[in-house]
Amino acid sequence: MAIDLVSRKDWGARAPRGSYTTITWTKGVKVHYTGGRVDPGIANDHAKCVAMVKSFQSYHMDGNGWLDLAYSMVACPHRKVFVGRGPGHLTAANGPGMNTGHYSVLGLIGNSGLVEPPDDMLHGILDAIAYLREHGGAGNEIKGHRDGYSTDCPGGPLYAWVRRGAPRPGGSAPAPKPDPEPAAAKPITVVWDGDVPRFPGRVLAYTPGRPYMRGEDVKAWQAKLQRRGWNIDVDGLYGRESTNVCAGYQRATGLDDSGRVDRPTWDMTWAWKKPATEK
User: For 210-256, where are the alpha helices, taking DSSP H only?
Assistant: First the structure.
């Protein structure tokens, strides 16, 4: 069965607030659940699924101030797959510093109400994973959100399925395909995303046991990373979260992942990289 894709236009998605951070390869996908109560009635009414996805986008954008819905894709009980940020775009759902490693797929179940994923939802999650592999360079791994991040997500039943190897209902675990290799190195051109503010003259860094660095320079750097799609609070405090996000951004842009905002990292925050052969 081909994927039953619900485009952003079809589910009425709002436009993102800015440009996504582009990615071309991940280790795989992390599976999520809503973490709240899900009305069991969505299993018999797809319109309720659409309303849920729209409400999550509004919460992420208006409540959290994020660029867009955090998830790459969303699977509902009708084996339909909603396009969230989609393939090739950095997710914001996996936790600080963990979004470059995996895409994210949300299953519309919660911790009360609808808690057991129906077979068609499991099929939909696997359809989404196959889509992200084909169109977004997703690797072999299928993990739960809690793998590497302190959370109950994706809940007991869905995580147990992930731990079993994410088998197709009525079948066996999907045969792994070789992980795609990162693209061969190409000449890189830096394309500036607006004027680069003057480097503040100090390296932004976190030292355990010492007070957080704070200031308008920290806030400016955090705000720019958030506008670029990274999941980071704009609070003007440079602590553990900022360090983790900084290291992830440095890895994504080919810098040493020190977690410190030095001059090259500051400048690259207002830039993006692309092969010189692209226009």
Answer: 216-227, 240-252
Q: How far apart are CA 61 and CA 17, in angstroms?
A: 8
CB 185: neighbour CB atoms within 10 A?
A: 8
Do 72 and 151 belong to one domain? Answer: yes
Spatial distance between the Cα atoms of 44 and 53, rounded to a whole number of angstroms: 16
Would residue 183 count as lying in a domain?
A: no
Report the Cα 129 to chain-centroid distance in Å: 13
Q: Does residue 184 surpass a pLDDT of 60?
A: no
Domain boundary among 129, 146, 163: 163
User: What is the model's pLDDT at position 182?
Assistant: 42
pLDDT grade for 195, boundaries at 50, 70 and 90: low
For residue 245, which phi and psi values (nearest 5 degrees)? -65, -40
Indicate the angle between helix axes 240-252 and 216-227, nearest 10 degrees.
50
Residue bearing tokens 């977690």: 259
Closest CA to 229 of 65, 9, 6, 102: 65
- Regarding whether 44 and 133 lie in a shared domain, the answer is yes
* 110: helix, strand or coil: coil
Helix and strand numbers (H, E) in the chain are: 7, 12
CATH code of the domain in which 219 resides: 1.10.101.10
pLDDT at 159: 96
**66 vs 60: CA distance, rounded Å:** 6
Q: How far apart are CA 106 and CA 104, in angstroms?
A: 7
